[in-house]
Predict the 3D structure of the following.
Amino acid sequence: DQKKSLEGKTVLITAGPTYEAIDPVRFIGNHSSGKMGFSLAEEAAKRGAKVILISGPSSLKPKHENIDLHRITSAKEMLDKVFEYYNTIDIGIASAAVADYAPKVVASEKIKKNEDTFTIELIKNPDILKTMGEKKSHQFLVGFALETQNEEENAKGKLAKKNLDMIVLNSLRDEGAGFKNDTNKIKIFTKTEKIEFDLKSKENVAKDILDCIEAQYLK
Ligand code: C5P
């Protein structure tokens, strides 16, 4: 039997992509499947946590009854939903692939194909995790990083800049890692430690991440 190591804890997890509307039928998005976040939600729920899963568009469905799923579309909606719950959570894990920019204006009617070139002005989205870090009191915060260069330095930089307790670095160099696959290869950084893991299924990566959180947070 699974030991209920997270009994009595509330864990908030962001997952999936965000879609940023251009007009009523079009959006800017990305290929995030939501698998890493949904795997983390299942594992945290199995360990006895109450899970608040806030996900952008994903075909996945939660299985465990302790998972309270909130489906949102845009980064702005994800931010608002996170802060409905932020004061009530013990642990926050940001695994969503939030769009960095959104169209400055959303056309109210479908945009017609007239000109030969077409420009969309984009405006920076709120950084949800950074905002969580700024408002942190008792919460233990975990972020993800996906880097193509100076990956370890950039990951450690984000740990500090976003006021996190832990950051999970996804390797892009390794075959099978990354956000559309069923497998992932990670390194975890805390303020003092660096832990490297082998390539494994996202279910097993979720176990490693939660073991690490428990070792840091419940100690
Ligand atoms: O800064 P960068 O996008 O690389 O940081 C990645 C981390 O920040 C991830 O944990 C991601 O979920 C989170 N993030 C966020 N809101 C954004 C951008 C990133 O919560 N607008």
Remarks:
- The chain has one domain: 10-110+117-217.
